[in-house]
Amino acid sequence: MPRINAERLLFALRRFAKFGAYKTGVHRPTYSREDMESRHWLMIQYEALGLDASIDGVGNVFGLPSGPKPSLLIGSHAESQNHAGWLDGALGVIYGLEVARAFADAPDCAGLPIAPVAWADEESHFISLLGSRSYVGDIDEGEIDRARNVYHGQPLRDALNAAGLAGIPRRQAEPERHVGYLEAHIEQGDSLEATGKRIGIVTSIVGIWQYRIVFEGTQNHAGTTRMAIRKDAGVAAAMLAMAIAERFPQVAEERSVWTTGRIALEPGAPSIIPGRAEMLFQFRDADIRVLERMDVALRELVEQTSSKSGCAASIERTATGQPWVMDSAFQSALENAAERHAPGLHVRMPSGASHDAQLIARKLRSAMLFVPSIGGISHHWTENTPDEDIVLGCQVLADAAESILRSA
Amino acid sequence: MPRINAERLLFALRRFAKFGAYKTGVHRPTYSREDMESRHWLMIQYEALGLDASIDGVGNVFGLPSGPKPSLLIGSHAESQNHAGWLDGALGVIYGLEVARAFADAPDCAGLPIAPVAWADEESHFISLLGSRSYVGDIDEGEIDRARNVYHGQPLRDALNAAGLAGIPRRQAEPERHVGYLEAHIEQGDSLEATGKRIGIVTSIVGIWQYRIVFEGTQNHAGTTRMAIRKDAGVAAAMLAMAIAERFPQVAEERSVWTTGRIALEPGAPSIIPGRAEMLFQFRDADIRVLERMDVALRELVEQTSSKSGCAASIERTATGQPWVMDSAFQSALENAAERHAPGLHVRMPSGASHDAQLIARKLRSAMLFVPSIGGISHHWTENTPDEDIVLGCQVLADAAESILRSA
Questions:
Q1: What is the reported pLDDT for A271?
Q2: Which band of pLDDT confidence, cut at 50, 70 and 90, is reported for residue B317?
Q3: How far apart are CA A105 and CA A209, in angstroms?
Q4: Which of A64, A77, A103, A310 could form a cystine bridge with A119, CB 3.0-4.6 A?
Q5: Distance from CA of B180 to the nearest CA of A (A)
Q6: Which residues on chain B are in Cβ contact (under 8 Å) with A235?
Q7: Per-residue confidence at B172, pLDDT binned at 50, 70, 90?
C-alpha cells in the first residue's frame, strides 16, 4: 500500500514554484531559463530514486525504471502560462514524483514500476501540446522548423538550441514499455468547489475548435468620413461578438464554452476608422455533434455580420481538436480510490481544458484526476487549491496507480 | 496678380512625396529620418527664395521674410500618418512654398510678404498638433518630457535628440509679425466630390473629445470556466460598441461622427477569457452642445454596460478639443477668389478633422481651404486629389493671400 508523504509533497511543490516565482504564482515560459532549470531539477530527483532520467529533443523529462516490467507513466507539463498559477501542470508533475517516491518507500510496492514524466509546452508558447504530440508521433520536423514563440516571435529552433536541446532525439511512445498514463491536474473551473466535491474523475476531454475571423472594411479618417458611408471593421467585429453572445446559447449544450480571446483593430489609432479587424475565437465541447452545430452557427453569423456591416469577412478554422474518451478501467480505479479516501466526495466529469492526456491516450491507456480550484481561477497568478485537497488527490492517484499496476 | 506655376507646384509635391515613399503614398512619421530630410529640403527651398529659413525645437520649419512688414503665414504639417497618403499635410506645405514662389515671380506682389511654414506632429505620433500647440504657447516642457511615441514608446526627448533638435528654442507666435495664417488641406471626406464642388471654405473646425474606456472582468481559463459565471471584459467592450452604434444616432447631429479606433483585450491569448479590455473612443462636432450631449450619452452607456456585463468600468476623457470658428474676413477672401476661378463650384463647410489652424487661430487670424479627396479617402496610401483640383486650390489660395495682404 503506497502512502504518500504530505509534507514532502507540499515541500516539493513549493520548491518547484521557485523556478520563475511571480507574486504567488509563477512565470515559467517553455524553454526559458527558469523552465530549463526546473526540468534539470526534476532529473536530479528522478535519478535519486534510481530511475533512468533523461530529457528529450523537445524538453520532455522522463524518469524510467530499469526493469523489464511495464511501468505506469504519471505526470503533466512543467512550464506555465505567462504570469500564471503555481499548480497548473506542476501539480501533476510533482504528483508523479511523489507517487514514485511513495512506491519506493513501500516494501509491498516493489516490482510496481512508476515512471514520472514532465511534458513540454502544453501551454502553447510555441506549439500547443508540443511535448505530448511529439511523444505520440503527431508532429514532424517541418512543423518544428516553422514554429515561433506566439508572444515574441522567437523561432522554436532557436529556443531549443539556446536550451541545449538541439540534436537530441525526440523520444517516441513505446506502448509495450508502459501499462498506461495517469495525469492529475487542477480543475481550472469551479464545478468541484461549487458542488462540495474534492476529486473529479475525467470521463472525456473536450475538443477545441479555433478560428481566425477577419473583417475587411475601409480604413479612413475618423473626422471627415460621414457615418453613412463608413465600413468600420471594428464595428463589424463587435457586431459578431454580440451576435455570438445571443445565438450560441441556443445551439450549445450546458457544458459548452466559447470565447473571443483577442480582437485586434488595424491600424488601431484613435483617429482612424479601423480598416481591418481580426478576432481569435474558439469553442469547446465533449460531443462532436455539438462542435459541428456551433461551427455551422458561427459561419452563418459571420456571413450575416458581413452583409449587415458591409465589411468583407473571412473565417479560417485553425484547430479542430477531437474530443477524447478516457480509459474506463482506469476511471474505475480512480473512482474506487477516491471513494476509499473521500467517500461520496468525488464525481465523474468531462474536462473543458485540453491536456497532454488527450494525446497520450492515442498510444497508451490514459485517465485523469482533478482537484478543486479555489474560486475556479486558473491561468492567473492567484490560482490555488487547498493543501488538504492537494494531499488527498495525490493519495487517490497513488492508490489508483497501485491497483492499475497490480491488475496489469 | 500672383500666378501660380502648375508644373512647378506638381513637381514639388511629387518631389516631397519621395521622402518616405510607400506604394503610391508616404510613410513619414514625425522625426523619422525621412521626415527630417523633408524638413531640411524645405529649408533649402525657403532660402532659395531669400527667406530666413529656420527649424525650431520641435521641428517647425519657417521661411520668414526679412522686411518689417507683417507677413502672411501659409502652411500645414510636413509629416504623415503611418503608411498614409501623399497629400495630407504636404499639400498645404507645398502650397505655402508655391505661393511664396509665385509672389516672388510677380513684380506687382513685391512688398506683399509670404511666410511659408511646416508644422510638426499634427498627426499625433507623439503629441497631437505638437508643432502648432508649441507655437501658440499651449505646451510646457513637462508634457514634452513625458510624451512617448504612441506606436513604439520611444520618448519624445530621445526622438528630438536623434533628430538634432535638442537644445533649439521653440519659436513662439509673434502676432505683430504676421497678418494671419492660411492653411490648405485635402477635405479627407467625400462631401465636395459628392456634390461636384471643387473648393471648400472652412467655417469652423470641430471639437474632438477622446476617451479611454476600460472594463475589468475576471481573467480565467477559456475551457473550464462555465459561461454562467464569466465576467468577460471583451464581451463588455463589444456590448458597449454596439450600444453606441444604436444610441448615438439619436443624440448626434447629421455631421457628428464617432469612432472606436482601438479595442485591446488582455491578455489576448486564444484560451484565456479577457480580464481587461481597453477602448479608445472619440466623437466630433462643431457645436459644443452636441459634444456635451454625446458625452452624457456615452457615460450612461458605459454604466449600463458595466451593470449588464458584471465588469467594472472606468471612463477617462483624454482630450476635450473646443470647436473653433475661422476668421470671417479671411473666409470672404477665400470665397471671392474661389468664385473668380471656379464660379459656383465652392461651398462653405465645417472641418470634421482637426488642423493646425485651430491652434494658430488662438493667436493669429486664420482660415482654411479644402480641395476634394477622391472617394473621400485619407489616412491611407491610396489618398489622392485630381491634378486640376490641386492646381486650382493653390491659385485660389494665392489670390486670397494677395487680397488679405493688400487690405492689411
A1: 87
A2: very high
A3: 44
A4: A77
A5: 25
A6: 241, 245, 260
A7: very high
Pick the CATH number of B6-205+323-406 from 3.40.630.10, 3.30.750.24, 2.60.200.30, 3.40.50.2300: 3.40.630.10
In the prediction, which pLDDT does B394 show?
A: 98
The three cell numbers of residue A109 are: 510496492
Q: Minimal Cα distance from A351: which residue of B?
A: B224
Contact B224 A275 (CB under 8 A): no
DSSP secondary structure letters along B318-362:
EEEPPPEEPPHHHHHHHHHHHHHHSTT-EEEEEESS--HHHHHTT
Tell me the fold of B207-320: Alpha-Beta Plaits (3.30.70)
Helical spans, DSSP H, in A179-317: 191-195, 233-251, 288-309
Question: Residue B314 and residue B312: Cα distance in Å, rounded?
Answer: 7
Full DSSP string of B67-89: SSS-EEEEEEE----TTB-SSTT
Concatenating the DSSP letter of every residue in A39-79 gives HHHHHHHHHHTT-EEEE-TT--EEEE--SSS-EEEEEEE--
**C-beta neighbour count of B204 within 10 angstroms:** 19
Q: List all residues 6 or more positions away from B141 whose beta carbon is below 8 Å from its beta carbon.
A: none
Cβ density class A320-352: b for 16+ within 10 Å, e for less: ebebbebbeebbebbbebbeebbeebbbebbbb
Confirm if A78 and A120 have CB atoms less than 8 A apart. yes
User: What is the grid cell recorded at A400?
Assistant: 489508483
For residue A328 the three cell numbers come to: 474506463
Q: Is the pLDDT of residue B321 over 90?
A: no
Contact list in B for residue A245 (CB cut-off 8 A) is 235, 238-239
Per-domain boundaries in chain A = 6-205+323-406, 207-320
pLDDT tier for residue B308 given thresholds of 50, 70 and 90: very high
CA distance B104 to B48: 11
Alpha-carbon distances of A258 from A245, A282, A293, rounded to whole Å:
9, 6, 13
In this complex, is the C-beta atom of B220 within 8 Å of any C-beta atom belonging to chain A?
yes
Name the percent of chain A lying above pLDDT 70: 100
B396 pLDDT band (50/70/90 cuts)? very high
Say if residue A92's pLDDT is above 90. yes
CA distance B188 to chain A (A): 6
Q: Has residue A146 got a pLDDT over 90?
A: yes
Best of A126, A208, A221 to mutate (most B CBs within 10 Å, chain B): A221
Check pLDDT > 90 for residue B237: yes
Facing B378 at nearest CB: one of A221, A270, A376: A221
Residue A321 reports pLDDT greater than 90 = no
C-alpha to C-alpha distances, B372 to A101, A218, B198, B200, nearest whole angstrom = 79, 18, 6, 8
Q: Are the C-beta atoms of residues A283 and B276 closer than 8 Å to each other? A: no
CA distance B201 to A84: 58
Interface contacts A/B by beta carbons within 8 Å:
225
**Which of 306-365 (A) contact B at CB < 8 A?**
351-354
Provide the 8-state DSSP code for A190. S
Confidence band of A86 (pLDDT split at 50, 70, 90): very high
pLDDT of residue B406: 97
CA-closest candidate to residue B407, choices B70, B177, B66? B70
- Poorest-confidence range of A82-96, B12-26, B221-235? B221-235
pLDDT recorded at residue A224:
86
First-to-final CA distance of chain B: 16
Residue B395 and residue B408: Cα distance in Å, rounded?
Answer: 20
Q: What cell does B117 get? A: 511654414
- Look up residue A206 and give its DSSP letter: -
